[in-house]
């Protein structure tokens, strides 16, 4: 399936990486990571840092799947508000998930600093506003539970939001100073390049895995060209394309739309350049870039058919432009390029990380939802710990034991 179409800004901004290295013979390694996007890149980095021999396999060019189309907002807030998640999976587990996301934002920064990868990482506030006055009650509940557990949050009245951020909201808002943004494509390609150079990481592109089987001492995968990859463990970091490895469907496919403006004079941007998103479902989200462009995303649809998704791009672009104009009417916005893509969501807003029950050699690092990048950092750490026999308390929150309750 085409994971995106249109003109994703990040490939234009960075230029497509010229790396062509299909597997042309049988190969053996300790761990094989499937997927070269930001999830696979973070996973491979954690493994290399731990001294675990691994390789990365992708049927496309490096990071040209969902990562190339990601708008890359890094927030500890999850698509399902904490107050609602607590009712679904228990307050303790929900708080653990939120705290893990909060920590992962800092951990991603450390990884980029340690490797010298310039991925446009920038720490910024996040503004989460009520889409209607009726949602003020939800924000109050959300504020109270976050405050209870000492998560960073401030509750602002509608007037305060308009005065401080110049955003024409129709309700109150929650603000935190612990969010960030980056370029997921540049991060993925940079991390893989770093580990190829420093740790001898093998990355095989244009190599499609057609089948796999577990053996008593490992796994054997067969490529589209008939080559065998023998490994101790497989880690699937391929987003919703992990379906061929999953015994059961655990995600819902969603089409989303995004557009980016011409560069805007700095004085026209809103104060602090904070990330902006709302309580509506699907929600509108807004961020800036290091070149003073504005990215708008949203208008999600619960289908994934590429032709149907792509046919709506012009219509969705007009809707997003109109919504932005209503929210920030004083900013001159002109679309330069637009794109659409497919991503996966789960019913509780959480990723799936770890072994599928009964498959001890097969791990999944599936950062579904709007927090895909922060979930990917968490997944890389959890799975790396599990491979080393290190207990990680976060695994009980993001594992597969919860499937029976909602799926």
What do these coordinates show?
Pfam families: DAO. The structure is a single chain. This protein has twelve helices and 18 strands. By secondary structure, the chain is an alpha+beta fold. It folds into two domains: 23-70 and 185-250 and 349-406, FAD/NAD(P)-binding domain (3-Layer(bba) Sandwich); 123-179 and 252-345, D-Amino Acid Oxidase, Chain A, domain 2. The strands form two sheets. Strands 1, 4, 5, 6, 7, 12, 13, 14, 15 and 16 form a ten-stranded mixed sheet that branches. Strands 2, 3, 8, 9, 10, 11, 17 and 18 form an eight-stranded mixed sheet that branches. The model has no long low-confidence stretch (mean pLDDT 93).
Spans of at least 5 consecutive residues whose pLDDT stays below 50 are none
* Helical stretch tally: 12
The pLDDT mean sits at 93
Series of secondary-structure elements, N-terminal to C-terminal:
EHEHEEHHEHEHEHEEEEEEEEHHEEEHHH
Strand content range:
25-35%
Give the secondary structure arrangement, pairings included:
Layout: E1 4-6, H1 9-14, E2 27-34, H2 38-49, E3 54-57, E4 73-74, H3 82-89, H4 91-115, E5 122-129, H5 136-148, E6 154-156, H6 158-165, E7 173-181, H7 184-199, E8 202-204, E9 209-215, E10 218-223, E11 228-236, E12 252-261, E13 275-278, E14 285-288, E15 294-301, H8 306-311, H9 313-327, E16 335-345, E17 352-355, E18 362-366, H10 372-387, H11 395-398, H12 403-406
Parallel strand pairs: 2-3, 2-11, 3-8, 5-13, 11-18
Antiparallel strand pairs: 1-16, 4-7, 5-7, 6-7, 9-10, 10-11, 12-15, 12-16, 13-14, 14-15, 17-18
């Amino acid at each position: 399936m085409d994971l995106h179409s249109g003109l994703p800004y990040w490939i234009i901004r960075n230029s497509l990486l010229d790396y062509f290295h299909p597997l042309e013979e049988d190969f053996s390694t300790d761990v094989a990571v499937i997927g070269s996007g930001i999830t696979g890149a973070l996973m491979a980095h954690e493994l290399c840092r731990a001294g675990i021999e691994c390789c990365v396999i992708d049927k496309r060019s490096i990071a040209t799947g969902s990562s190339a189309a990601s708008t890359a907002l890094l927030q500890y807030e999850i698509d399902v508000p904490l107050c609602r998640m607590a009712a679904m999976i228990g307050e303790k587990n929900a708080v653990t998930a939120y705290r893990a996301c909060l920590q992962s934002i800092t951990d991603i920064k450390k990884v980029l600093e340690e490797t010298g990868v310039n991925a446009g990482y920038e720490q910024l506030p996040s503004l989460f506003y009520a889409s209607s006055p009726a949602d003020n009650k939800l924000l109050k509940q959300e504020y109270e539970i976050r405050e209870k557990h000492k998560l960073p949050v401030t509750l602002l009245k509608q007037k305060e939001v308009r005065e401080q951020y110049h955003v024409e909201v129709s309700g109150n808002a929650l603000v935190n100073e612990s969010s960030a943004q980056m370029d997921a494509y540049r991060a993925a390609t940079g991390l893989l390049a770093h580990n190829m150079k420093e740790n001898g990481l093998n990355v095989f592109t244009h190599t499609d895995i057609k089948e796999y089987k577990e053996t008593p001492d490992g796994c054997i995968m067969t490529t589209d060209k008939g080559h065998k990859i023998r490994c101790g463990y497989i880690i699937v970091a391929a987003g919703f394309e992990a379906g061929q490895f999953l015994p059961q469907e655990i995600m819902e496919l969603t089409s989303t739309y995004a557009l980016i403006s011409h560069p805007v004079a700095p004085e026209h941007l809103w104060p602090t350049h904070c990330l902006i998103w709302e309580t509506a479902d699907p929600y509108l989200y807004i961020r800036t870039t290091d070149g003073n462009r504005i990215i708008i995303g949203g208008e999600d649809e619960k289908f994934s058919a590429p032709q149907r998704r792509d046919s709506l791009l012009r219509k969705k672009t007009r809707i997003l432009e109109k919504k932005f104009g209503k929210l920030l009417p004083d900013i001159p916005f002109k679309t330069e390029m637009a794109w659409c893509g497919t991503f996966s969501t789960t019913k509780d807003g959480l990723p799936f990380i770890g072994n599928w029950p009964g498959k001890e050699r097969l791990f999944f690092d599936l950062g579904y939802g709007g927090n895909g990048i922060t979930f990917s950092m968490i997944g890389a750490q959890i799975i790396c710990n599990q491979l080393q026999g290190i207990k990680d308390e976060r695994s009980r929150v993001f594992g597969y034991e919860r499937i029976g309750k909602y799926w």
